[in-house]
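Quick one, tokens below. Sequence please?
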């Protein structure tokens, strides 16, 4: 997951028009970065097992009086995905 998050950051910094989303599949636990050239581009998945990670919300919810460090962001993302899988969202 850490590599995918770093790939997203590099992609987003390459151009002000680019954006990305961190995705995960509850059927197999796969995590990947969806990268787009502009905000008008997107991918529609037909599987109910594919979800995006609300990175901005996680950072906002976990930020106290100082910015989060990269390791803390990675931990928050990992904990979010694991909690979703543990809560029974994972498909058999």
């Amino acid at each position: 997951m850490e590599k995918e998050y770093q790939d997203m950051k590099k992609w987003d910094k390459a151009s002000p028009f680019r954006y990305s989303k961190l995705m995960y599949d509850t059927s197999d636990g796969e995590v990947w970065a969806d990268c787009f050239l502009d905000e008008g581009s997107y991918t529609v998945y037909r599987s109910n097992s594919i979800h995006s990670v609300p990175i901005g919300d996680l950072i906002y919810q976990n930020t106290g009086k100082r910015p989060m460090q990269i390791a803390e962001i990675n931990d928050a993302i990992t904990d979010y995905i694991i909690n979703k899988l543990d809560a029974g969202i994972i498909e058999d």
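Residues 18 and 38 are 5 Å apart (CA to CA). The first helix runs from residue 2 to 14.
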